[in-house]
Amino acid sequence: MTAAGLRDDARHPHAGAAPSGDMGPGLRGDGGKGPSGTLFRRIPGGRFLVGLPPYLWLGLFFALPFLIVLKISLAETQIGIPPYKPLLDWAQAGVLEVRLNLGNYRTLLTDDLYVLAYLNSLKIAAVSTLLCLLIGYPMAYGIARSSDRHRNALLMLVVLPFWTSFLIRVYAWMGILKTEGLLNAFLLWTGVIHEPLQILETDLAVYIGIVYSYLPFMVLPLYATLEKMDRSLLEAAWDLGCRPFRAFLSVTLPLSVPGMVAGSMLVFIPAVGEFVIPDLLGGPDTLMIAKILWSEFFDNRDWPVASAIAVAMLVALVAPIMIFQHFQKRATE
Amino acid sequence: MAETIISIDAVSKSFGSFAAVNRLSLSIHRGEFFSLLGASGCGKTTLLRMLAGLEQPSEGRIVIDGTDMTGVPPYLRPVNMMFQSYALFPHMTVEQNVAFGLRQEGWPKDRIRDKVQEMLDLVQMAPFGRRKPAQLSGGQRQRVALARSLAKEPKVLLLDEPLAALDKKLREQTRLELVKIQHRVGITFIMVTHDQEEAMTMSSRIAVMKAGSIEQIGAPVEIYEYPASIFVADFIGAANMFEGSISRHHDSQVMVACPDLGRDVAVTHAPPLPVGAAVKVMVRPEKLLLSRDEPGAQMNWLRGRIGDMAYLGGLSAYHIELASGLSVQATQANLKHVDGGGPSSGDEVYVAWHPANAVVLVQ
């Protein structure tokens, strides 16, 4: 009451001079800007409302599940349903016991299996990203330089595989790569080889699968960067005595770095956690962190260790990316 | 006759069925400031790009300083271009941009540094060497682009609408500055522009282009005072044109019968034409004299009534309506204070011009 009263008193001196001073408090702040104010500025708190859905979405479908996973990762295993002990326990009347079990994380560090699987995942993802970049760059460059008439058709071809289920496409690769598959049949027919090659169930098959599946995610951002690049920059380089290949190296390539970074992120991050491709195309000795996670969860029913793997993977992926972005931001300033 | 540095010999360029440049021949002299002037789509930029090697002619040949440049790629030509968009490399600093061409030549580092410094001093951009293009204003970017294209000391500098991206005031200042820089470096400049005022104030010679061909080549004075065609007369400055036909030759003058004026008009400058040829008589508005008294016998004159008039400060512009319904534009310098005394709206006046101040153009 007192605060409102004070504010009313403060307004009084102006009320006589400007009749608009009598406007309600709701109108003063937002509606006072007149007809030029945008729709959302007219609704009190409109800006906040517009920003809400993404936060709500993130909170509900990312932060909350992640906290549950984090909770499980700190629990102890038990045989039962659920297969882990609660963190909070009323041990005696009035005493709340919090039991945080860091042993799951220690297991990750002490048992070689997890570290090796994680490093191997990083390696496979990094090599696949590099291969995608090497294959995708010329593709994106070719599409960006093609005539208007062909460009849309070519882009369509890049996106076309998405119209078929991812799983079916990976199964198709099994048909191509297996010992009596299409590839071996073709190579035997041409006489290049005399006995079938073992490709399926090797790391090579995993690379083929990842590069094939993720190539569009590399091509599209690269295309977007290359397409909007001002062609007169290249002409200026030629005009200043630069031969076409050097002009590519000193103008086109550095200016397409943002597209290369965006494409590499889109390939590298999901490739590290890729499960379907190594499971279907890889062999039993293809060590990837997502396969380990799967077997901890379903084969061993060790939810806490599986959760700890998930949390560790997230931290290990997010940290380098944040560091990288920090440096990139500083470079562009 | 000045020495020729570029000779363009019957050059054509077609894009599909569209002929952007059509059997065009032209020679450009060493050290001159030459302008290609024309409306958009007249082929002037295509011609400039062919000089740079960014387009190859469909027919004909281009010789630069005695060497046939047909088929020679842009990176081997002794010319440099300043692009309309400036085309500064956004990921390089001002210094790196200016040094780019010198690095391609493999100059030693210290010589590059000195040359870059010299060029930045020339365009007064020395304090901005470490900046990126995005941190510069439009005028500063234009200077950097100029410094970059001059750094290699090309035999010819090609400028594609160099002032088009600047605002009006800066554009006018920069005109003089570009001419000054051209004098200092002594390099042949070839500029493409659609702005006739720009071409007139900066160039030593102008080629007026239309639909892939040259309509007229000459010094700004010639082009303005003695246009060779109706198109040029119309394109450069304002013009009054009267339709007529040649009625007789009289001493050094031609008499033209103009039905709209109801009388014959005497003109000194006319191409050799037979009696009866259909022509237009062109008189610039400022060549017309307005008076209340009948002009002398050697003058051509008409009678009319002043319709609209506009006071422009140094000048006043008048629209004079003739009895035939034709309207004539005239401008008069306001040599004295005009409040009272001067011709004003509704006045009956004589409009007069000397035979030497009109031109006969073939229709």
Describe this structure in words.
The complex is a heterodimer of chains A (333) and B (363). With 333 residues, chain A is an all-alpha fold. Chain A has a domain at 111-301: MetI-like (MetI-like fold, Orthogonal Bundle). Chain A is built from 16 helices and 2 strands. Chain A has helices at residues 2-17, 25-29, 39-42, 46-73, 103-110, 112-145, 148-159, 166-177, 182-190, 203-227, 231-239, 244-255, 257-272, 276-281, 289-299, 303-332; strands spanning 88-92, 95-98. A two-stranded antiparallel sheet of chain A has the order 1-2. The longest helix of chain A is centred in the middle third of the chain and has 34 residues, at 112-145. Chain B folds into 2 domains: 4-234, 3-Layer(aba) Sandwich (Rossmann fold); 238-362, OB fold (Dihydrolipoamide Acetyltransferase, E2P) (Beta Barrel), CATH 2.40.50. Chain B is 23% helix and 37% strand. Chain B has helices at residues 44-52, 94-105, 109-122, 138-150, 168-185, 196-202, 220-225, 230-235, and strands at 4-15, 18-29, 33-37, 59-64, 67-68, 79-82, 156-160, 188-193, 205-210, 213-218, 240-250, 253-258, 263-267, 278-283, 289-291, 300-311, 315-322, 327-333, 348-353, 358-362. Chain B has a 6-stranded mixed sheet, with helices on both faces. In chain B, a hairpin with a 2-residue loop joins strand 9 (205-210) and strand 10. The longest helix of chain B is centred in the middle third of the chain and has 18 residues, at 168-185. Chain B is elongated. The two termini of chain B are 32 Å apart. The mean pLDDT of chain B is 92. Chains A and B meet through helix 11 and helix 12 of A and helix 2 of B.
Write the layout of secondary structure elements.
The complex is a heterodimer of chains A (333) and B (363).
Chain A: H1 2-17, H2 25-29, H3 39-42, H4 46-73, E1 88-92, E2 95-98, H5 103-110, H6 112-145, H7 148-159, H8 166-177, H9 182-190, H10 203-227, H11 231-239, H12 244-255, H13 257-272, H14 276-281, H15 289-299, H16 303-332
Antiparallel strand pairs in A: 1-2
Helix pairs in contact in A: 4-16, 5-16, 6-10, 6-13, 10-13, 11-12, 15-16
Chain B: E1 4-15, E2 18-29, E3 33-37, H1 44-52, E4 59-64, E5 67-68, E6 79-82, H2 94-105, H3 109-122, H4 138-150, E7 156-160, H5 168-185, E8 188-193, H6 196-202, E9 205-210, E10 213-218, H7 220-225, H8 230-235, E11 240-250, E12 253-258, E13 263-267, E14 278-283, E15 289-291, E16 300-311, E17 315-322, E18 327-333, E19 348-353, E20 358-362
Parallel strand pairs in B: 3-8, 3-9, 6-7, 7-8
Antiparallel strand pairs in B: 1-2, 1-4, 4-5, 9-10, 11-12, 11-14, 12-13, 14-20, 15-19, 16-17, 16-19, 17-18
Helix pairs in contact in B: 2-3, 2-4, 3-4
